[in-house]
């Protein structure tokens, strides 16, 4: 698999203009530029963050394990060393933009830590950000400021100004993603139902192998772990891990009160390697040990 550590080489591979900065590229996208764009690529990786607004009439892009159809256009965020592959990029509507920067460009700045907290960089591509016209205008305005600073004679203030504008763009993206989660409440509810269904199926399987794993369930639902957890958090106020713990806890309570099994038997059936780990989790969640809980309920 080809890996790009040089921004100039990466942009050359895409048939995009050479960067004016060794660690940063700011490119407006239009139909003329896209005529020369590499219309397909095998899986590749790189050392760059990229933020793009694409309005492609046709084409698809695989990011991680998921394929996203660009028919309606989307804003896409990619992190370093993620696997990308695309094909059939043919046409483009209106304008867009493509910002690419090496992780070294923000190293040592406040953005270097903040950017890791934005979960959408780890989302699979079908969870891209779909903007309203008003939101798109806001993003385009921020991009225009970055482009202006990038193209002017750069001085000692340029990098700070660009990074500040990148932070603003990412904060707006965070806001718009939360709006997208809320607007997709029906979809989120369905995802929660599917999540609970997969948890039930996990314990119905005769080949139980340890505790339920959030990443495994996310793969079964064809979404990323981070997106699943964020969606559940928005829908219920609890993260994916908290949901799994709650599910295990309720199942444990049912077994403690509805069977004659020992605490050790229940622990192993739930997927714990050691009964002590089960007891610790139970006490952490309820404030009492399984034995104390059983005694309290029976009394």
From TrEMBL:
Top-level taxon of the source organism: Bacteria
User: Domain HTH araC/xylS-type spans what residues?
Assistant: 197-296
Tell me the PROSITE patterns matching this sequence: HTH_ARAC_FAMILY_2 (PS01124)
Could you tell me which SUPFAM superfamilies the record lists for this protein?
Homeodomain-like
Does the record's keyword annotation contain Transcription?
Answer: yes
Which residues, if any, are the signal sequence? none
One Pfam short name? HTH_18
Q: Which SMART domains match?
A: HTH_ARAC
Kindly state which keywords UniProt assigns to this record, in alphabetical order. DNA-binding, Transcription, Transcription regulation
**Which named protein is this?**
Helix-turn-helix domain-containing protein
Please tell me the species this chain comes from. Answer: Flagellimonas spongiicola
